[in-house]
Amino acid sequence: MDTKDYHLENIRPYHAVPYYTRTSPSLLGEEHRREERKHNKIGQQHGQQAATQVKGSIAFYNDFFKRKTGKSWPEVQEVAKQFLPYLEKSWPAYLEEIRGLADGAGVEYETILALNVRTEIGYGMLNDGCTAFAWKTKTGSFIAQNWDWEGQQSGNIVVARIAQEGKPTIHMMTEAGIIGKIGMNSAGVGVTLNAIAAKGVSFDKLPCHLALRTALESTSLQEARVKLNKAGVASACHIQVADAETGSIGFENTAFDQAELQMKDGVNTHSNHLTVSHNGVEDKGMLKDSPFRLDRVRELLVRLAPGPTIDQLKDVLKDDKNSPCAINRSPTEKSTIRTLFSIVMDLRKRTASVKMGKPTEGGEELELRP
After folding, report:
1. Is the peptide bond before 18 cis (omega within 30 degrees of 0)?
2. pLDDT category, 2, cuts 50, 70, 90?
């Protein structure tokens, strides 16, 4: 394999990590095993190029889970290992990528597995306080969000580019060590994520961040829809998927079911609470401002009708009404959660604009172009 295809570019204080390899489509027998080996290589490049940030993610979540759940790291690993029977049977290539990532970073396999099921380890009680929306117009298709999380994790954000033969090229923002998160692909499919505080975990469904990766490997919204419907998602979260031609669907998941949220006048919006009824599921509403942010983003988007510009969508993510618990989130005396990056994706043009940190501050500006 030609190592010139791999390099690490520092973008202070964040790190762009374009890791690139080629894999074959999933087939039977030797070709299936070959795909798993290629996924292992993808993981190795991730682990090698972002080793410092991967270890930073591990340190952050070690402390975080101890504080929030009372679990030691060995206990966290034991929870993560409960996914192995399902993943080994249904998603072995992802496990190989996780294994390669662990090898590349020089850490335990179970530790990287734990990072990739970090939403599920909290049994639905981790709440990244994010606001997301998608908008399909006659001339464009856009998907955007602010990703709000603990400020201590900001230095471990990476931007990764993954090219795979037979699949769309992915360009995404993620936490180092996690193989799927927020971004878009060369087929014009984009994804966003909102955590939801509702208890429950299903060990025979796809963990949230692996579901995001699955959507990013799809060539259309419909393909992603079929995959997510079939696999289900293991814990409470909202995954929004959009493509360049047909618009968006929001997949509001709990450990027990999945509801599809369709566009209204071309628009989909979400924050951090359940917006429809889910049988027997109690929404803990950890972020009390979530309903306000959802109403506010809808209000702002209505003002832009019949169609927005990219700059106008960026301005929506800058909104400070109800600060510090605004769309553009700031830390409070009780919480260190803040906006760590904002992203606006133009799916028809296959580009995304990313602003690191709060969008109203002078953070680095990046462009994704899968």
Report:
1. no
2. very low
| Protein fold of 131-368 | Penicillin V Acylase; Chain A (3.60.60)
- The domain locations on the chain are 3-121, 131-368
CATH class of the domain whose range is 3-121: mainly alpha
Q: Give kind and range of the element (H or E) at residue 214.
A: helix 208-216
pLDDT greater at residue 178 or residue 281: 178
DSSP-assigned beta bridge partners for residue 23: none
Q: Which of 62, 83, 153 is nearest to 338 (CA)?
A: 153
Range of lowest pLDDT (13-27, 94-108, 126-140):
13-27
Strand order in the sheet with 9-11: 9-11, 14-17, 157-162, 170-175, 182-185, 190-195, 237-243, 247-253, 258-262
Whether residue 49 is predicted with pLDDT greater than 80 in this model: the reply is yes
Structure token pair of residue 269: 């919006």
pLDDT, residue 19, reads: 47
What does the alpha-carbon distance between residue 366 and residue 349 come to, in Å, rounded to a whole number?
16
pLDDT given for residue 30 in this prediction? 44
- 8 Å CB contact between 19 and 75: no
Supply the angle between the helices 290-304 and 310-317 in degrees, to the nearest 10. Answer: 160
Inter-residue contact 22 to 2 (CB < 8 Å): no
Q: CA separation (Å) from 132 to 64, 142, 143, 324, 331?
A: 24, 11, 8, 18, 19
Contact 202, 231 (CB under 8 A): no
Phi, psi of 234 (to 5 degrees): -75, -15
Q: What angle do CA 341, 45, 241 make, to 5 degrees?
A: 45
pLDDT of 280 > 90? The answer is no
Span 168-218, pLDDT tens digits: 999 999 999 999 999 999 999 999 999 998 889 999 999 999 999 999 999
Q: Which long-range contacts (CB under 8 A, 24 or more apart) does 327-330 make?
A: 327/131, 327/146, 327/293, 327/296, 327/297, 328/146, 328/358, 328/359, 328/360, 329/129, 329/146, 329/148, 329/358, 330/358
Beta bridge partners, 239, equal: 193, 251
56 class by beta-carbon count within 10 Å (0-12 exposed, 13-18 middle, 19+ buried): buried
pLDDT value of position 236? 94
